[in-house]
Amino acid sequence: MTQERPAAIPDTPLKRLEDHAEFVTRHIGPDNDDIGHMLDTVGIESLAELIRTTLPPSIQDESGLDLPRARNESETLERLRAIAQQNTLMHNMIGMGYHETVLPPVIQRNVLENPGWYTAYTPYQAEISQGRLEALLNFQQMICDLTGMPIANASLLDESTAAAEAMAMLHRVNRKSRSRQFLLGPGVLPQTVDVVRNRARHFGIEVIEGEPGVLLEDGDFFGVLLQFPGVDGNIPDYREIVSRAHEKGALVAVAADLMSLVLLTPPGEWDADVVVGSAQRFGVPMGYGGPHAAFFATREAHKRAIPGRIIGVSRDAHGRLALRMALQTREQHIRRDKATSNICTAQALLAVMAGMYAVWHGPERLTRIASRIHRLTSLLVAALEPGGIVPESDNWFDTVTFQRSGEEIDRIYRRALDAGINLRRIGTNRLGVSVSEKTTRAHIATLVAAFTGSETAIDLAGPDAALAADASALPSAMQRCSEFLSHPVFHRYQSETEMLRYLKRLENKDLSLTHAMISLGSCTMKLNATAEMLPVTWPEFSDMHPFAPLDQAQGYQQLFRELEAMLAACTGYDAVSLQPNAGSQGEYAGLLAIKSWHESRGDEQRDLCLIPSSAHGTNPASAAMAGMQIRVVRCDARGNVDLDDLKIQIEACAERLAALMITYPSTHGVFEENITEICALIHDAGGQVYLDGANLNALVGCAAPGRFGADVSHLNLHKTFCIPHGGGGPGVGPICVRNHLAPFLPGHKVIAMDGPHAGNPAVAAAPWGSAGILPISWAYIAMMGRDGLTRATQVAILSANYIAVRLADAYPVLYTGRSGRVAHECIIDLRPFKESCGVTEEDVAKRLIDYGFHSPTMSFPVPGTLMIEPTESESLAELDRFIDAMLHIREEIRAVESGQPDSPLKNAPHTARDLTGEWPWTYSREQAVYPDSALLLNKFWPPVSRVDNVHGDRNLVCSCPPIEDWIEEGNGSN
């Protein structure tokens, strides 16, 4: 990865890049002429001058990025193909929460590979997210039905972190117990044990592993975690255990295999309090560990404590049925260090896929799939039994474990490996086998030969002579009797014609990057190029099991090494961990690295974290999760950290200062002049600097946090490095650290990782997190190259300043930095309009929908404002279209200020249905829905009017409404 250090290229014209970097000119929206016009508008000569006069001199880095030159799309894909082909694809029967599955092509092509689904933003603006919300509501309904619980979220990051969230929630809500002990039953996935233990340590919770039936007799526990079925395949009847736990004042969480619940009694029917797990095997590729949607289901009583997002049913302004994200006040930007979790990114795109898998198959075909998996497992057992090879347990669903001598286990494992099958080694004398949706009778025959050493072909293609037609190894008392997936949505779309139309119908209800720019400040909604997305579904990347032997994953290992080097070059840090599978998890992992470093030096008393008042809400939530105490540092009138208050806080911390968490550029959208001094003050006091990398799109190629004073940053690959937001996830949040923190990066207990950190506890279920989407960021960096990445930063900053200048006469720009400029985003202040005429930021946000735009970030970090981030990938024409819409809206505000009796601002957004009925307003239909003539060529129609958030929270319904409700309201989607 080492390259010659390039000479500084302060202002490279695009034409000089085109010979070897044609992708750069396609990713960056404005061309040379556009950039010239924008520079003139801002009042500056060149991009180089823009950077020199906007960034503080103390952080500017003109040495260039230590990266190769840009590759074009075909070169990049060819190189990635060569890397992918170093992975060896086997039939994986390892299990442990990851299984081979069949992704229905109709879902692959129309959801996973469809930018209408993967480029949408988190559905905070419900009126333009109704399709995604309905798909996620289907996911919640599926989870509720299969788990037997009344309420579910949509969704969490992976099974292991979901289990850790369950532990934390049970500790909060259990009013009957003062205990700080949490019991892990036998058979819990080893990666879950690792993640739960790590989380528990920082919450002051003691984790005890053992047999619940024994330990509950004399122990005092606030909660219990049970695995169902166990990692070894056993299916215990836990009903008595749950009853006994409740008698002893403990609450019970169950980590369940979703496919098994098609045939097994759901935990909700045996009185579990929480059910968690992964929806991966519902049509989502393994992807060497992710991304996959985890689920979390619980009792109604805990609906306001459940972590993650809940999709709820509400009404719009006309009383019609509408969906929304419910209970949004639980989000971290509101509750901060009092947040119930630091989870911010959900796995929305993957939850949509898993829910659609259930819609596509319905209960009958799901039952057929689950029954076939179980029957093939039983067929393997029956074929081995005559030779005296019997599993440890008398019952199973899809997994059986065998115990033999170490030498025999080694021979069996090697024979299976030679035949193309991965099994699970358990110590020296045990072997696990897990059957999946992709397992065939041929695989079973191969396994029988591997176990017996017989060279004779075994015919399993005919009738199962040794297996009765009704044979079942499921305990009779635990077989499912209740119905599931009875809602019509799980029965209506099982022809491809109907499914295709349903997916398109939902897609058409949502605004995504396929329609318009999404100018969300601090969220960096930019181009996710098709070439970057293609490798995600290549089998060599998508079909790898995360616990496959490392020698089968050499392509992935090379991809990781190269991507880590790329990210280190972009940030100036020394080491990288790719494990955190969300920005929030990156924050948590970075703080744990800081905490462990202090402990290694004997400074266990350092437990205070300073956080500016402008910080992202996940910052204080993450610090609380890491077991740190939080002190808030004030910001001054210009949005910068108040240095005087910082010094006071540092002095007050004395020897307890652990870290400062700071976002740079600041959450207020400016480059703080004193950042290097701030870092020095923290270091002089013995602390560490955590620099939130959410705004790295304003730094790459121009300044490097690892070189101007920070010790650790998380990077949102779904922002700066082009992994799509997917309607609210997947996210990836790797952390970059300086050398002294490298020994404290996350490790993994299942897969041996390289480096001094290998034995450290994990923060996520898979060793390299959501590895399956890392080729996206690798491809982006490869195609942009060292000069293109710098150019992207320059144009992102130019675009934000262009918008700020053009809007400044209409809307006050709240914060500016050097030379009166902003960073990559700007905040406009709408509070004066609320005072002058009652128009709010919400009114402007909803009116923008009529103009075909998603609103900028609303009321964060300052209530009553909009934070705008245009990114580098939006063209000048699109920037001007957005600016024109905002200027038109300003005129509409003036009309209200002048006494207009009613305004489209107050009634926005306007739907097509509004046009067909009585028109109750004094303004015209044309002004309502075609306020700009350009909309006559391309109009996005919101499916619902303004959604009533209060009604939805007061009347929380988070399962699919009856089909009659949809029909009565005229939505007709289901």
UniProtKB/TrEMBL annotation:
SUPFAM superfamilies: PLP-dependent transferases (SSF53383). Transmembrane segments: none annotated. InterPro entries: GcvP (IPR003437), GDC-P_C (IPR049316), GDC-P_N (IPR049315), GDC_P (IPR020581), PyrdxlP-dep_Trfase (IPR015424), PyrdxlP-dep_Trfase_major (IPR015421), PyrdxlP-dep_Trfase_small (IPR015422). It catalyses: N(6)-[(R)-lipoyl]-L-lysyl-[glycine-cleavage complex H protein] + glycine + H(+) = N(6)-[(R)-S(8)-aminomethyldihydrolipoyl]-L-lysyl-[glycine-cleavage complex H protein] + CO2. GO terms for biological process: glycine decarboxylation via glycine cleavage system. Its cofactor is pyridoxal 5'-phosphate. Keywords: Oxidoreductase, Pyridoxal phosphate. The modification N6-(pyridoxal phosphate)lysine is found at residue 719. It holds the Pfam family GcvP2_C. Residues 792-910 form the Glycine dehydrogenase C-terminal domain. It is an enzyme of class 1 (oxidoreductase). Residues 26-451, 491-762 form the Glycine cleavage system P-protein N-terminal domain. GO terms for cellular component: cytosol; glycine cleavage complex. The keyword Oxidoreductase applies. Its EC number is 1.4.4.2. One of its GO terms (molecular function) is glycine dehydrogenase (decarboxylating) activity. It comes from the Bacteria. NCBIfam families: gcvP (TIGR00461), PRK04366.1 (NF003346). Belongs to the GcvP family. The glycine cleavage system catalyzes the degradation of glycine. The P protein binds the alpha-amino group of glycine through its pyridoxal phosphate cofactor; CO(2) is released and the remaining methylamine moiety is then transferred to the lipoamide cofactor of the H protein. This is Glycine dehydrogenase (decarboxylating). It comes from Elongatibacter sediminis. The lineage of its organism: Bacteria, Pseudomonadati, Pseudomonadota, Gammaproteobacteria, Chromatiales.
